[in-house]
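seq:
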Amino acid sequence: MAAGYCIAATPRMVEASGVAQGMVWQPDAAHVNPHGQWDALGVRELLVQWTAVDDEALVPGAGLPTAQRLPDWKRIGREPWAREVIVGLAGRFDESQARGNAAQLVKQSLALAAVKWPVHVAGWYFPVEVDPTWRDAASLAPLLDRLPKPLWISVYDNSNIGGAALAAWLDRWLPRDVGVLFQDGCGDYVRKPAVARAYADALAERLGPERVRIIAEAFRGLPGGGVRAASASELRPQLQAYRGYRVFLFDGPHYVSPALVREMVEARRH
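struct:
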């Protein structure tokens, strides 16, 4: 496992590697073994949302009950879109439960991190999401100190306090050796890509560019509830706006279908 953070890629380096550099995979019963052509978009890094959820592990040897169906980690580790893997640790489907049980999740996460992973581990992700409405978020700091590094968490801002305010809030309590995956908010129409880019710029200025990556939401909320996959015409402006940052699609197996990949690739050729 690497130690510390890699130097952030320059805009030219990132752009040359494709429209997206990573993707998120949120394992669930319907998406245990992902297959796709996400590497055609430039994806080389896989972020696994979690490897244990609600006290059930997706890998043996972590001291937790294991799911009936387990991912084929060896096969996943050979995929071109998973040359490097950020391993998500222990989480909960319910956000409030995750926040309230963060200490227990850290204990489970340490056991997961000790597993011998058959993938190239590029870092770790603690799947307890934060946002400025969480008044006790600072209590997470000493828990994050216990986890292996490089370590990432994700942050969102549905209150629209602005990039500078969000960056200042994080800077007050987040350990300096923890990186931030910023959820762009486009999926639920919280903000447009240009505003999300301004958020990322503010985070990079305050926290350092090597600590900031962007999660491009590849879904769209529906008026009556639920979500659908974003279209190529909806997703393309997001990826164009975020050039210069390492961008992760959320999430590949659920929303970025082979047909969408083909449409995105064809659009780049014209």
